[in-house]
Design goal:
Blueprint (H helix, E strand, L loop, with lengths): L19 E2 L2 E2 L2 E3 L21 H5 L1 E9 L3 E9 L4 E9 L5 E8 L13 E7 L2 E8 L4 E8 L8 E8 L8 E8 L2 E18 L2 E5 L5 E9 L4 E12 L5 E9 L11 E4 L2 E4 L3 E4 L8 E5 L4 E16 L4 E16 L5 E17 L1
Antiparallel strand pairs: 1-2, 3-12, 4-5, 4-15, 5-6, 6-7, 8-9, 9-10, 10-11, 11-13, 12-13, 13-14, 13-15, 16-17, 16-24, 17-18, 18-19, 20-21, 21-22, 22-23, 23-24
Length: 353
């Protein structure tokens, strides 16, 4: 990497105590999460009658964990009308992948209410996963106990993502999906520790070697929604975390109203809008760039998650390839970072919900 002139960068704000004050959403990009994520108090045009406002709120916790021999994607999702979860594992040595999934009736799962000290759990036959945010202790803990099912092997164990501000700077955003209609997202690249047993093999995670990407999300999405997403994180030769989060979605003015950033150590560099070049064959390379040229990346897929749901009034289709990123990043200090062989994921999602 080489040094150049520092870049005038947008600044992270200090969050108020509550995300919504007297019905008004406190929009912005923040360096710390809110103590009180009271999005249901937002006067966003969705009535409270019969629990409709909660029904329209989409919430999830997702982690993408990168080990030198395995990749894991775990999600706990509350869509209002449906609860769902998946546990997807990719063996980087063999190229083989498998996935456990469950869908639940409404109300069977509630996402953690906040990031400071609150749990969420999905438990059904042969499938038990939990997420406990503990930012008061600078950790997020995930427990997995999934039984074998047909050809799908059992997976069990616990992972801890360490969100220590001395090592990693999170990004918390409250962005406008419409007039006073909020999208909250907390993204963080965290060292990860713990152990899993997969197919009888013990897989150990070391915080000085392995990385977990946290996506904690709550939003009043419009009925017709799309987003494109790209992210990776790795530990560079100097022992610092290096990664990005990039999105393009339904927000009209996404030059500043976005969740785009570069992580490098405990610095976070904000970015303008990001744009995606997605091939017709989704297993061919994807190109992702920022409008100011500071990000120029190519994802070479090695595997893929995908799903299509068509329930008439509710439809969803997504492609989520994962593989190796190559390219360059320029942070707000003007430092150019060469990206080689960094494992990450991308997503193209459209929905009617």
């Amino acid at each position: 990497m080489s040094d150049s002139k520092p870049i005038a960068d947008a600044q992270l704000q200090d969050p108020p105590e509550k995300a919504v004050l007297e019905g008004k959403v406190q929009f912005g990009r923040f360096g710390r999460p809110f103590k009180d994520l009271n999005l249901l108090d937002a006067e966003c045009g969705i009535p409270r009658l019969f629990g409709l406002r909660h029904f329209r709120l989409k919430q999830w916790v997702h982690i993408a964990v990168v080990h030198h021999e395995w990749y894991l994607s775990l999600a706990l999702v509350d869509l209002g009308f449906l609860g769902t979860s998946w546990l997807h594992l990719f063996n980087r040595r063999t190229g083989q992948a498998f996935e456990h999934t469950r869908k639940l009736l409404p109300g069977r799962f509630r996402a953690p209410e906040n990031l400071w000290d609150h749990p969420g759990r999905i438990e059904t036959r042969g499938y038990r996963v939990s997420a406990h945010n503990h930012l008061d202790r600078q950790v997020h803990r995930f427990e997995i106990d999934v039984k074998a099912k047909g050809p799908l092997p059992a997976v069990s164990g616990a992972l801890t993502l360490h969100e220590d501000p001395a090592r990693t700077q999170p990004l918390a955003v409250l962005l406008p999906l419409g007039p006073n209609r909020p999208m909250f997202s907390h993204k963080s690249a965290c060292p990860v520790g713990g152990a899993l047993v997969v197919e009888g093999e013990k897989v150990e995670f070391s915080p000085d070697r392995h990385v977990g990407l946290l996506d904690y999300h709550k939003a009043f999405y419009p009925r017709s929604t799309f987003w494109r997403w790209a992210t990776f994180a790795t530990i560079d030769a100097s022992g610092n975390l290096l990664g990005v989060n990039l999105t393009h979605n339904v927000i009209r003015d996404d030059t500043r109203n976005n969740e785009n950033c570069i992580w490098h150590g405990n610095r976070l560099s904000l970015l303008p809008a990001a744009r995606f070049e997605i091939p017709r064959d989704r297993m061919q390379p994807w190109r992702i760039r920022s409008e100011d040229g500071r990000v120029d990346l190519e994802l070479v897929p090695q595997g893929r998650r995908r799903e299509k749901v068509n329930l008439g009034l509710v439809k969803s289709a997504y492609d989520q390839p994962y593989g190796l990123y190559w390219g360059t990043l320029i942070d707000s200090e003007g430092v150019r970072h060469k990206v080689e062989n960094a494992f990450g994921l991308a997503e193209d999602h459209v929905s009617l919900w």
